[in-house]
């Protein structure tokens, strides 16, 4: 046996191995790895690891750029959210202002309408007072002599012409009268338009005392404004009136039935 038979050989055994290369790269900001392999003959010399493995690293500049991009995106999102909140608040404020304006306009119109109505009523009341005053003035003033009206003689003549005619409640001539119908018809002969009923005739002119009567004064029984009977003073202490259904139209002295008061319209 050879002396070298038991000595292990220092030669590396032959083997078939697959050489694999690990490659890394950055694509679109992401780290990618690629492993490639090839079968090489067993007797091929193995290359150092440094020649078969490449491991590039992410640079500081790349990381900073990515961080800035994320910050920018976050800031943009924040700005959009803040703008949306501002727009919402502005819309609400605008709607509230518009509602307030509409209510103010409505209130102003109502106030103006109320004042206009009050002014209209005040004007109508003033016109009514003026009309009543003019009416009293007309009744109190003598009629124009140029027209031949206002003559007490004409008034008395008409009243005497009615003596003996019937008293009928509500009648105003020409064949029958009640008390206020007779006085109204008599004064219409001289152009004076008296109210129809005795209550109104008792306040149609100026109140005068019974001790200061003149021809043509209207006599009334009861209180002014609520008189129940009227007649006309014709002088010499006498009056003419439609007394009642029993007597009809008569001429009587004041002592026959003393009146309560008198008004002057001539």
What does this entry show, briefly?
The chain has 266 residues and is of the alpha+beta class.
Describe the structure.
The protein is 41% helix and 22% strand. It is of the alpha+beta class. α3 crosses α4 (179-188). Residues 16-42 and 136-149 have low confidence and may be disordered. The chain contains five helices and eleven strands, in the order ββαβααββααββββββ. It starts with 16 loop residues before the first strand and ends with a strand. It has two domains: 60-140; 145-264, endopeptidase fold (from Nostoc punctiforme) (Alpha-Beta Complex). It has helices spanning 49-52, 60-140, 152-161, 179-188, 198-201, and strands at residues 17-27, 30-40, 53-54, 166-167, 176-177, 206-208, 218-221, 229-235, 238-244, 248-253, 261-264. A six-stranded antiparallel sheet has the order 6-11-7-8-9-10. Strands 2-1-3 form a three-stranded mixed sheet. A hairpin with a 3-residue loop joins β9 (238-244) and β10.
Helix-strand blueprint:
Blueprint lengths: L16 E11 L2 E11 L8 H4 E2 L5 H81 L11 H10 L4 E2 L8 E2 L1 H10 L9 H4 L4 E3 L9 E4 L7 E7 L2 E7 L3 E6 L7 E4 L2
Parallel strand pairs: 1-3, 4-5
Antiparallel strand pairs: 1-2, 6-11, 7-8, 7-11, 8-9, 9-10
């Amino acid at each position: 046996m050879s002396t070298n038979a038991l000595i292990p050989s220092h030669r590396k055994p032959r083997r078939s191995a697959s050489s694999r290369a690990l490659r890394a790269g950055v694509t679109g900001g992401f780290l990618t790895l690629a492993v490639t392999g090839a079968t090489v003959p067993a007797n091929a010399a193995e290359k150092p690891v440094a020649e078969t493995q490449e491991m590039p690293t992410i640079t500081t500049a790349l990381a900073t750029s990515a961080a800035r991009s994320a910050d920018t995106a976050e800031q943009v999102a924040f700005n959009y959210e803040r703008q949306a909140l501002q727009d919402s608040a502005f819309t609400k404020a605008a709607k509230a202002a518009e509602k307030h304006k509409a209510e103010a306009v409505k209130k102003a119109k109502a106030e103006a309408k109320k004042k206009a109505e009050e002014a209209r009523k005040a004007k109508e009341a003033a016109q009514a007072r003026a009309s009543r005053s003019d009416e009293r003035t007309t009744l109190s003033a003598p009629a124009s002599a140029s027209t031949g009206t206002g003559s007490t003689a004409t008034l008395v003549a008409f009243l005497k012409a009615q003596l003996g005619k019937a008293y009928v409640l509500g009648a105003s001539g020409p064949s029958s009268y009640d008390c206020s119908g007779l006085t109204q018809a008599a004064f219409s002969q001289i152009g004076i338009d008296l109210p129809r009923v005795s209550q109104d005739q008792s306040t149609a002119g100026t109140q005068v005392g019974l001790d200061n009567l003149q021809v043509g004064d209207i006599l009334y029984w009861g209180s002014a404004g609520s008189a129940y009977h009227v007649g006309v003073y014709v002088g010499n202490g006498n009056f003419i009136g439609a007394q009642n259904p029993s007597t009809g139209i008569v001429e009587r002295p004041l002592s026959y039935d003393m009146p309560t008061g008198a008004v002057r319209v001539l």
